[in-house]
């Protein structure tokens, strides 16, 4: 049973470009969470999605960031017009659902904005 | 707003020592507290705690939750160099279902 998969593992973008980060949850998991980890900081919640629904996006910056989890295919975290401050590790986690199900993390995508 | 504070921020010990990591929290409608270990990659799940006073144990690691005093501890006995990592504590609430609030972590370094 493959774990949570994220790609790419490393992404380099110039300021102003778009970054697309993908996350495929574990088989049987329908809940996806995105976190950002800045250097030397803890994980910060960004958004929680179920298939075709955004459940909680309270941790998402209001501008330039969006997330989706379509009926088919991976969850996508999209960052438009990236800035240097977006450089971070972005982790995706998945769970079976609510009700005390632990989250399993993917390997992360390390975004570097030059 | 939910809040998780971990202490100490960093800790250096020698192999064989026992360490205790602390996690205090403020959360509306507590659901669970989770501990993760993060080496230079994604966090890996250690424990989920929902009830006070019940110790969870896995090998040399153990953890317990005090819902009255709003804290948890993670104990590691007979530490090994492979225990060197950042240990993250997170809480979930029923109010913000699905959203985990993480502490900044404790960086543990175990020297040979």
Secondary structure topology:
The complex is a heterodimer of chains A (114) and B (112).
Chain A: E1 5-7, E2 10-13, E3 19-24, E4 31-37, E5 43-50, E6 53-56, E7 65-68, E8 75-79, E9 88-95, E10 104-105, E11 109-113
Parallel strand pairs in A: 2-11
Antiparallel strand pairs in A: 1-3, 3-8, 4-5, 4-9, 5-6, 7-8, 9-10, 9-11
Chain B: E1 3-7, E2 10-14, E3 19-26, E4 30-38, E5 44-49, E6 56-58, E7 61-66, E8 71-76, E9 85-93, E10 100-102, E11 106-111
Parallel strand pairs in B: 2-11
Antiparallel strand pairs in B: 1-3, 3-8, 4-5, 4-9, 6-7, 7-8, 9-10, 9-11
Folded structure, characterized:
The complex is a heterodimer of chains A (114) and B (112). Chain A is mostly beta strands and 114 residues long. Chain A is 0% helix and 49% strand. Chain A contains no helices and eleven strands. Chain A has strands at 5-7, 10-13, 19-24, 31-37, 43-50, 53-56, 65-68, 75-79, 88-95, 104-105, 109-113. In chain A, the strands form two sheets. In chain A, strands 2, 4, 5, 6, 9, 10 and 11 form a seven-stranded mixed β-sheet that branches. Chain A has a four-stranded antiparallel β-sheet with strand order 1-3-8-7, with no helix packed on it. Chain A is globular. With 112 residues, chain B is mainly beta. In chain B, strands 2, 4, 5, 9, 10 and 11 form a six-stranded mixed β-sheet that branches. A five-stranded antiparallel β-sheet of chain B has the order 1-3-8-7-6, with no helix packed on it. In chain B, a hairpin with a 2-residue loop joins strand 6 (56-58) and strand 7 (61-66).
């Amino acid at each position: 049973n493959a774990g949570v998969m994220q790609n790419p593992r490393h992404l380099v973008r110039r300021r102003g470009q778009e970054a697309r980060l993908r996350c495929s949850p574990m088989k049987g998991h329908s809940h996806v969470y995105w976190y950002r980890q800045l250097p030397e900081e803890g994980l910060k919640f960004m958004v929680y999605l179920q298939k075709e629904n955004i459940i909680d996006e309270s941790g998402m910056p209001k501008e330039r960031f969006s997330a989706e989890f379509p009926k088919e295919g991976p969850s996508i975290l999209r960052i438009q017009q990236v800035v240097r401050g977006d450089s971070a590790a972005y982790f995706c986690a998945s769970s079976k659902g609510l009700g005390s199900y632990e989250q399993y993390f993917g390997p992360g995508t390390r975004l570097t904005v030059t | 707003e939910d809040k998780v504070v971990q202490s100490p921020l960093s800790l250096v010990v020698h192999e064989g020592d026992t360490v205790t990591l602390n996690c205090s929290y403020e959360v509306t409608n507590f659901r669970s507290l989770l501990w993760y270990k993060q080496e230079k990659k994604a966090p890996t799940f250690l424990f989920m705690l929902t009830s006070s006073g019940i110790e969870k144990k896995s090998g040399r690691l153990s953890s317990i939750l005090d819902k009255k005093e709003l804290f948890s501890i993670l104990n590691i006995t007979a530490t090994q160099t492979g225990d060197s990592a950042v240990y993250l504590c997170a809480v979930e609430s029923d109010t913000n279902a699905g959203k985990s609030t993480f502490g900044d972590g404790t960086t543990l370094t175990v020297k040979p």
